[in-house]
Design a protein that fits this description.
With 332 residues, this protein is mainly α. The protein contains 21 helices and no strands.
């Protein structure tokens, strides 16, 4: 009796015109017991055409029952690519809590398209619970470039420190798109990196990783980290790294760092570095920097005095600027 009624409803659903389908579908969704789910699954999978799969997936999403979600997972492992795609589109529409439960299972699929879907969807969820499944997926799929790129992008969204060893290795030892994505991911992590990771990155043999660490240090706006910026400006041999540091610098909190940047502006190893060093001093607008410039102007001569005066003349906004410049020009 039940099977006959459901069969009639489903036949009407598949045969009815567009205006009557939603009403029929709503009637089908009133049958959501486990026995109903099994019957509807069996009846609609017999034909295996696109329309029956479409309505079956919609039904499972609509009724929100555990057995229905298990059937969705089963459909995602179907040998037909079209069926797998339909099932994955349905899984993406269910609640995040249920996705969190189902995606690790789907991630173990032998079908690459399904595994990549699960990887991307874990990233979209952005939940820490996705960390271990992604780490397991990396171990299994690390030779698949497309899968690895998707894993890195999801790692970027979840931002769990357990990903860092893998990201460091990929940033240092891989190439092409994978290295590019790993470096971008480490850069995104820079806001929340623990000091122990930053110190390691500051001493990395990979200049691109060091650049990420320098930018992260500058974002801290903490004078305790400025010694590492000094070391970068004085010790880095690659001009591009020095330019990255100067370009990213918005504050100068210690007189020691001010002295290094001022000296680079005064006697630059290249015109680009000189220009960037001068811009860094201009952007670091603060009373301490203003006072250090005044001392430079008062206690030096020649090019050093002229540079300090030039930087002071562009240091508008503070009341002391006008008085200091008037003093200089009155004296001269």
């Amino acid at each position: 009796m039940k099977e006959t009624k459901l069969n009639t409803l489903l036949s009407r659903l598949l045969a009815s015109a567009a205006e009557g389908q939603e009403e029929t579908f709503a009637a089908v969704c009133l049958h959501f017991g486990d026995q109903d789910i099994e019957l509807i699954y069996d009846l609609l999978t017999k034909s295996s055409n696109a329309q029956s799969v479409y309505w079956l997936v919609r039904y499972f999403v609509a009724i929100e029952r555990p057995l229905g979600f298990d059937k969705l997972v089963a459909l995602s492992q179907n040998q037909s690519l079209a069926v797998r795609k339909e099932a994955c589109s349905g899984i993406a529409k269910i609640s995040k809590d249920w996705q969190e439960t189902l995606l690790p299972k789907i991630l173990e699929s032998s079908y690459d398209d399904v595994a990549v879907f699960a990887i991307k969807q874990l990233g979209e969820l952005g939940r820490v619970s996705g960390a271990v499944p992604l780490l397991n997926a990396f171990d299994r799929l690390q030779r698949d470039t497309k899968a690895v790129v998707s894993i890195i992008r999801s790692m970027r969204k979840i931002q769990d420190v357990r990903f860092l060893p893998i990201l460091e290795r990929l940033a240092s030892k891989s190439s092409g798109k994978i290295q590019e994505e790993a470096l971008a991911c480490l850069g995104a992590y820079a806001y929340k990196l623990h000091s122990k990771y930053l110190k390691r990155y500051l001493h990395s043999a990979n200049p691109k990783i060091r650049a990420i660490a320098y930018i992260a240090v500058l974002r801290f706006v903490d004078k305790r980290w400025e010694k590492y910026i000094e070391r970068a400006l004085l010790g880095e041999k690659e001009e591009s790294l020095k330019l990255t540091v100067l370009r990213s610098m918005n504050t100068i909190q210690t007189r020691s760092l001010f002295g290094v940047v001022f000296e680079m502006a005064l006697r630059p190893p290249s015109s680009k570095i000189g220009m960037m060093a001068r811009s860094a001093v201009k952007r670091s607008r603060s009373r301490p920097v203003f006072k250090w410039l005044i001392k430079k102007e008062r206690n030096s001569s020649g090019d050093s005095k002229m540079l300090a005066l030039r930087l002071l003349s562009e240091y508008g906004g503070l009341p002391e600027t006008f008085h200091e410049l008037r003093r200089v020009f009155t004296r001269s």
